[in-house]
Every structure is written in C-alpha cells, then in structure tokens.
Write a structure and sequence with these properties.
There is one protein chain. By secondary structure, the chain is of the alpha+beta class. The chain has a domain at 58-185: Carbohydrate binding type-21 domain (Immunoglobulin-like), CATH 2.60.40. It has two helices and ten strands. Strands 1, 4, 5, 8, 9 and 10 form a six-stranded antiparallel β-sheet that branches. A hairpin with a 2-residue loop joins strand 8 (158-167) and strand 9 (170-174). The N and C termini lie far apart (72 Å). It comes from Rotaria magnacalcarata. Pfam families: CBM_21. One of its GO terms (molecular function) is protein phosphatase 1 binding. This is CBM21 domain-containing protein.
Amino acid sequence: GLDLESIRYMSPPDQSQIPLMQECLRLQLGQLRLGQNQLGIHNMYKSSPSSSLCSSGKQYNLVSKQFTSPTNLIPLIYEKQVMLECLYTKDSAAYGTVRVHNCNYEKFVYIRLTENEWQTYNDITASHSMNFPVDNTDSFTFQIVLSKSNDDTAEPNRILFAICLKSMSQEFWDNNQGWNYVLDVFER
C-alpha cells in the first residue's frame, strides 16, 4: 500500500462546556417528543396524559414552584451519587432528569412518590437516557402523571417525591436535603 498522508485524531466534544440549562431544555424537549411511546409505557403514574384529568368537570395541573436546577451539579453527584437535574411540568404531568455517578454498570433508578404525606407511596422506574463519559455520569428520565380522581376521593394538594439509586447492593437517596421534592396540584 501507499503511505498515509496525514493522521487526524478526533475526540468527542467536551460535554462539560454545554451550559446546564441548555442541556436540561434539550433533554426535556426530547422527553416530550418521546411521548407515550417510551416513557408512557413504564413510567406512568395511574393514568395517561391523554386522559384529561376530570372530576365533575374539574381539571388539575402539576406545578413545581420550589425546584431550581443545581449550578454545581458534577461535584454534588460525586458526593451524593444521585441528584435531580431538571424538573419540568406541563398540564397534569411532570418530566424530570436524574443524574447519577457512573460507579457501576448495573444500576437501577426509581422515583418514590406519595400523595398522602407518606402514608402510602408508589415507585416509578426511571429510564436510562444518556451517558456522559467526560464526567463519568449517566442521565435517567422519568414522568409523573397526576392520578385520575374518583368522585369519592379528594384531589391531593401536593405530591412529594424522592429519588433512589440502587447500585453495588447499596441505596443512595436524593430527597432534597430532607425536604422532599414537591409538585403542587392546582385546579385549572
């Protein structure tokens, strides 16, 4: 054969340079595009977004007034192993991304939520969405949909939730520093 004229070494772009809010918005828009095909099948919470939440003609929305995306995310992930990265609400659904330390290949991320101040709770499995090799983290997505109300049950005022990472026979929790994450329920 012929001699090589030049060798070009290519490396992936430095993902840490992408501003956090830009990345959150990109992930959120991707979640909305996925819609029911992927997220809806495994991560639904009692009803689907297409089924309008009506109880005697009333409709309810989820709103997150207290969550702000962390600014120093990567050091916090290394310290706590799991963190809520983004939270976005639209009508009766909430979409979120969770970032975890990629300390082990086998890991399981789920959202534990309650509508009645932890008297009972449900778990929602989060789906792996992206690997960030530059900072050795993984991203998972989830969807919470407000349950369809019965005429005999009152609508919850809020939904509390926390995030769990199971890896290496250990559990790591992100519960908003003991305050839980909150989704307020408002009548439309």
